[in-house]
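histidine kinase, Kouleothrix aurantiaca. Tokens?
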Amino acid sequence: MTPGDIDVLIVEDDDSLREQIGQIVEMWGYRTRRVATVGAALAELERIPAQVVLTDLMLPDQPSYPIMRWAQARRPPPPVVVMTAYASLDSAIEALRQGAYDFLLKPVVPTELEAALVRARTAVALEYERVRAEHLRHIAEVALTLAHEINNPLAILMGELQLQLREGGEPIEPAALQIAIDSAKRIATVVRKIMALREVAYQEYGGLRLIDLDAGGE
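Tokens:
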């Protein structure tokens, strides 16, 4: 995961400092949005969630604890990096209790800010991979279920149809039987592709986002 994949919401009430931090963070390749208060931050996060939040601890309307609680309520929770000029053991403990991921002392040193964002980006990437692995596990479970539920009756269906076709029994027409057999074979092919699914690849079809079984197989 590169910096360009990360949207950083910067919450700082000092206009010049907010712009300065935003420019530096963008220089490192991150995308940024910038607000000045807790209320504006929560509204922006509800509109478009951010992957990382960089916030001052003390803001004009209230301390930034509601931002941390918002992050903790998300799944996965985005890292919240807290900047503060009022470092104390009590404030650090409270921020950590509320869900802060990292701390930076003001005035913010660019190298320390960059390191904090790298740590946050790494956490986001690890969580992304965990969620992706969980999704693939669910796909595997669905594949096993489909194989169990479909393959057995499918084998019986194909056996009966092939028997009817060989015997030429009435009133079923051979052409109709062949169509049924071809359809059953198609179902079997779909099941095999689902069983071979290792990656989640998608294709657009009629405005729908569908899993591409061919691209997702080994």
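Residues 92 and 103 are 8 Å apart (CA to CA).
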